[in-house]
Known about the structure:
Layout: E1 2-9, H1 12-29, E2 34-37, E3 41-42, H2 49-53, H3 55-64, H4 66-70, H5 72-75, E4 84-85, H6 91-99, E5 103-106, H7 111-141, E6 147-148, H8 157-164, E7 170-171, E8 180-184, E9 187-193, H9 201-204, H10 212-220, E10 229-234, H11 237-241, H12 243-255, E11 259-261, H13 263-268, E12 277-285, E13 288-298
Parallel strand pairs: 1-2, 1-10, 1-11, 2-5, 6-7, 8-12
Antiparallel strand pairs: 3-4, 8-9, 12-13
Amino acid sequence: MEVALKVDVDTHQGLGEGVPRLARALTEAGVTATFFVAMGPDNSGRAIVRVLRNPGFLKKMRRTRAVAMYGLRTILSGTLLPARAIALAFPDLIRALARSGFEVGVHGYDHVLWQDRLDEIGTDRIRGELDEAFEAFRAVMGERSRCFAAPGWRTSAAALATLDALGLDYRSDTRGTAPYRCAIGGATFATPEIPTTLPTMDEVMGPELADRHAIVRFYLERVSATALNVHTIHAETEGMGQLETFVALVHALKDRGARFVRLGDIAAALDRAALPVCEVVRATLPGRAGWISAQGPLRAATPPPATTPAGL
């Protein structure tokens, strides 16, 4: 059983508080992971617009007790309170992750902007967001990032084309079942996609899975013994209020014989030419407000559209 832990870091608080706790717990358990860090400002407060656009987001906030989990400073960041830097506020911490053997990649620049307005901002702004994100990563790490994970599992043809021009080892932008190459709008993209395969904890938390034991059982019933399991966790959830539940899950998986791997190691072993090509579709998931990008039906490969390299 292979398990790849994908840690999304969306906020200043998540990086400063959640990530050190997760890194310590993973190290103590002898488990590796891949961390994707939002490289720009923490504009979490602007996500309140989702309440107006999608009532399901308010239900999710209530179900997960988001205000108690994140705290008012994060909930108001970028609105009533100034947006704080995320990656550039904790460069030593990010470098320490890499020194400890964890993989580190880019999780966008302005997480809220990408997740809430990807369809509105246009190709030039998408390229600008990626330019800022990868440059911030280079400033912190002294080298370019080899991987990317889209905020909110949201992507588009323009985003995929711009990322293709960077020559990344892989992306992890979608929800799905197994590695593949993405196709949108009549074009097939070259960069391998390694999708998240399991529901996230913030999607399943609630009255029916209200305690640690129920959540652990839920995941043990869903992991595959024969296929790669990609489980996304959040520094703001598993790294903070749900840390004990997450640690219990890791130990339960280890007891089942799970082998923990980094996404980059999975990507290195892929035969790109042999990967299936699947349409990227928009879908909804139980427990998650709004749409996400998902692995769709198989299709024949076609050339990607011409794109101007982002110069990163």
